[in-house]
Write a structure and sequence with these properties.
- This protein is mostly helical.
- The chain contains 15 helices and 5 strands.
- It has one domain.
- Helix content is 66%, strand content 5%.
- A 5-stranded mixed sheet has the order 1-4-5-3-2, sandwiched between helices.
- Helix 5 packs antiparallel against helix 9, helix 7 crosses helix 8 and helix 11 crosses helix 12.
- The structure holds zinc ion.
- Its cofactor is Zn(2+).
């Protein structure tokens, strides 16, 4: 799920933040400069629309935005490889243990663990299938369908967003409501666009700006890595959960049957220690093996993992840019300025480096600055 804003939770020390923002804005500026030099067609994917570079008003119909994946998505997908490998290893290990425990299995059963792992890998893509989206929205993200009045209200702005993106009449996306008074919106899965109940008080271009930002996430493929990361980290999560359950049950028994103290504690610790050791050894062997195969690939993977949170913030800038390219820049700035007045920005300066690194969203003032830099192009 990629909410429009989560900036107020995390924020940086002033100095580092300034360096970071200076870099970001510099990069955006260079991109635009390059666009001017080499012509608009090169930048269609980069800026969302060539029309904006040429300065045409986007309130008229524009060329249809294509769905794709941008570089932030590519980096994040590469960053998923380690957890994917660990997950595959756990499944093959678990499958082998199960097959090994069955007496007199036929020879082909040796492939079952690999089949299991392959199915699990492929199931990751299922989360974006159209027929799963309703389930995801309702049960996973806890969204609800808009009631009639809400649907009408949303549709008025949403249809205009789709029209400007050249996607009119395409029923691909589905709108949902998140039952909270917070002001936010999110894009998730294959076609889910959700607005909080609180954000329903926006209308016209302001609601359009919020929705266009979320459409930007979808059109740039930003929702893919999140769900895949969640799915591919499940095997490790299950191992950790099982360990925790055994620990809790073990300690619970210890409390009630005191004479079994030593035995149960021993069993629990052997199980926990054993499981962790097995996974840890597997991971170490995997790392050593991969390093032998190609240390360059390993460095690339490590970098991709480390850069993950940075990519999240870049993705926000890119979604904002989509809103700008659809003509919602000024409205989005107004929404952000209002949020700033509510104290949603990170001006507190109490947060540490870790929070700065992990922040899912750039601070509002940085986003506003970027948007305002992009606005003159549309004049
Ligand atoms: Zn966003």
């Amino acid at each position: 799920m990629l909410p429009l804003l989560r900036g107020w939770r995390v924020g940086p020390a002033q100095l580092v933040r300034n360096i970071r923002h200076a870099t970001h804005i510099g990069r955006a500026h260079r991109t635009f400069a390059r666009g001017r030099r080499f012509g608009a067609s090169l930048l269609i994917r980069d800026l969302g629309a060539a029309v904006n570079l040429n300065g045409y008003a986007s309130t008229t119909a524009v060329s249809r935005r294509r769905r794709g994946v941008d570089w932030t998505v590519l980096v994040k997908l590469v960053g998923l490889v380690p957890s994917l490998l660990v997950g595959l290893m756990i499944l093959v290990l678990a499958g082998s243990m199960i097959v090994g425990a069955i007496p007199q299995v036929p020879a082909w059963a040796g492939w079952v663990p690999f089949g299991l792992a392959t199915v699990w890998f492929l199931l990751g893509f299922l989360w974006f299938a159209p027929f799963v989206q309703g389930f995801l929205a309702r049960w996973f993200f806890q969204f609800r369908e808009p009631v009639n009045a809400e649907q009408l209200h949303l549709d008025r702005s949403w249809h205009e967003v789709l029209r400007r993106a050249g996607l009119s009449g395409r029923g691909r996306y589905r709108l949902w409501v998140e039952d909270t008074d917070a002001l936010n919106a999110s894009a998730a899965g294959g076609n889910i666009v959700a607005v909080t109940r609180g954000a329903l008080r926006y209308h016209g271009d302001h609601l359009g700006a919020v929705l266009a930002h979320e459409l930007g996430h979808h059109l740039n493929g930003h929702t893919y890595p999140g769900l895949l990361a969640w799915w591919y980290s499940r095997p490790l999560a299950v191992v950790r959960y099982a360990v925790r359950v055994v620990l809790r049950v073990g300690l619970g028994i210890v409390r009630f049957i005191s004479y079994l103290n030593v035995l149960v504690a021993l069993f629990a610790y052997i199980f926990i220690g054993g499981t962790y050791l097995m996974v840890a050894f597997g991971v170490i062997r995997l790392i050593l093996w991969a390093w032998e195969q190609s240390w360059v690939a390993m460095v690339v993977l490590a970098l991709a993992v480390i850069l993950g949170p940075v990519m999240n913030r870049q993705a926000e800038f890119r979604a904002d840019r989509m809103a700008v390219s659809l003509g919602y820049g000024p409205a989005l700035v107004e929404v952000f300025r209002e949020w700033q007045s509510f104290g949603f920005d990170d001006q507190g300066g109490r947060r540490g480096l870790r929070a700065l690194y992990l922040a899912s969203h750039p601070p509002l003032h940085a986003r506003i600055r970027r948007i305002e830099k992009q606005l003159p192009l549309r004049a």
